[in-house]
Amino acid sequence: MFGSAPQRPVAMTTAQRDSLLWKLAGLLRESGDVVLSGCSTLSLLTPTLQQLNHVFELHLGPWGPGQTGFVALPSHPADSPVILQLQFLFDVLQKTLSLKLVHVAGPGPTGPIKIFPFKSLRHLELRGVPLHCLHGLRGIYSQLETLICSRSLQALEELLSACGGDFCSALPWLALLSANFSYNALTALDSSLRLLSALRFLNLSHNQVQDCQGFLMDLCELHHLDISYNRLHLVPRMGPSGAALGVLILRGNELRSLHGLEQLRNLRHLDLAYNLLEGHRELSPLWLLAELRKLYLEGNPLWFHPEHRAATAQYLSPRARDAATGFLLDGKVLSLTDFQTHTSLGLSPMGPPLPWPVGSTPETSGGPDLSDSLSSGGVVTQPLLCVSGSSSHSAA
């Protein structure tokens, strides 16, 4: 990975700008094949992209606001090395498949951040980018397969419906399979999610959402939903879209009931750790989840019950309990002892939860582990090819 520490952007002199262009061109001539193949992600600071766009428009443009598709550059004299470098850089950017933009705030207002040169993008990551300054998304949103946006959003519609600073009315994102909107300032979901009809992986973790209000019901292809570390009081309503859901991560919310969970019949992985589930009777919806193979309950009040594992076993579907590969409860396979204890105690699926021992007080766990679920199955990020406006680069 190539990179350097982000620095506060300052106005570049012509010499500094030329130096940046030469270094970036040299880096891409050396390692551009992994960018063009999609094996690595090109990572740029927003000031660097703004400088590139400035020189592109100065020497290779101008282009009209409605310009779409690949740009055929005019021929220039071969004795103009700067123009040749710019042509090379622009051509590489047009063919880049994966881009990560990291915003570095300057002392003044942020100018336009244009992703117009990137015609072939399939994977886009935005970190801290002010969306009202982002221009050019409307030209590529329909071809994106992966979208990551963190520390930028206050409402999903800013990105999904308005396409950031393009302020357009987006049509469905037909190619988008994976969306990660974690670590934002979302307090609610909205109807713009209906535009993601092909989505299979959705990460909404580390926000402040209290109620999903049925906005997930149109995601009929959704297989993996991570909405951990929010403020949910209710299990998200999925409707028909719940038929495909195999992984649901609700860790670190404020759930006291699992009502509605019984509709998600194909769940295999369920993370309910660090919620407010008090009695094992609240687990009764699990009886209908015949495909369930992994369950996490640590950090809930019921987790401190002395017979927690046996009490949980009584609410599992017989098919789940008899799984040949074993059932994982809180990361450990349910043992024969757990089932024998369950039988010896005379527990039944509709029986009352085991009482707390008289005079005992459940201890606290000391708070949740702020890391994500250990087996969440999240998308693995690609290696980065990092470029900034700094005067030095280091290989890692």
Automatic annotation (TrEMBL):
Which terms are listed as keywords in the entry?
A: Cytoplasm, Kinase, Leucine-rich repeat, Phosphoprotein, Repeat, Transferase
Q: What is this protein called?
A: Serine/threonine-protein kinase 11-interacting protein
What species is this protein from?
Homo sapiens
Using the UniProt annotation, give all residue ranges assigned to the region (Disordered).
346-377
Does Cytoplasm appear among the keywords?
yes
GO terms of molecular function: kinase activity
Its taxonomic path starts at: Eukaryota, Metazoa, Chordata, Craniata, Vertebrata
UniProt KW Transferase keyword: yes
PROSITE patterns xrefs:
LRR
